[in-house]
Design brief:
single chain, 4-stranded mixed β-sheet, globular
Length: 109
């Protein structure tokens, strides 16, 4: 999943293991306030609902996918993520992110 999100094929910049206190998000697109979570079988649904409500109350959209969906239908998952990002407004219209990533972040070619 990270390889797909980090190689810029989506057209959107994602970070992994992004902190939005008090939580750590699997993947975050700061410009779109989009959070992508990949869930295993052991996730606590009630905890996740509370967490998502907190993040959404702060303007983030949270998308959740099961490990199996990512493993078996990665292309479809990526299409859903890209479509959702395209629908979201930019958080900083016409301006670069106020806190850019460190130089060289991401996967090497």
């Amino acid at each position: 999943m990270w390889r797909q999100l980090s190689n810029s094929q989506t057209g959107f910049k994602f970070r992994r293991q992004a902190v939005i206190f008090p939580y750590i998000c699997d993947f975050l697109c700061p410009a779109k306030a989009m959070i992508v979570e990949i869930d295993g079988d052991t996730h606590d649904r009630i905890y996740d609902e509370r967490r998502d409500a907190y993040l959404e109350s702060r303007g983030y959209k949270v998308m959740r996918f099961a490990n199996g969906d990512v493993r078996d239908t990665l292309e479809g998952v990526m299409q859903v993520i890209v479509a959702a990002c395209r629908e979201r407004p930019n958080r900083w219209p016409g301006e670069p992110h106020p806190n850019p990533s460190p130089e060289g972040e991401g996967l090497e070619a």
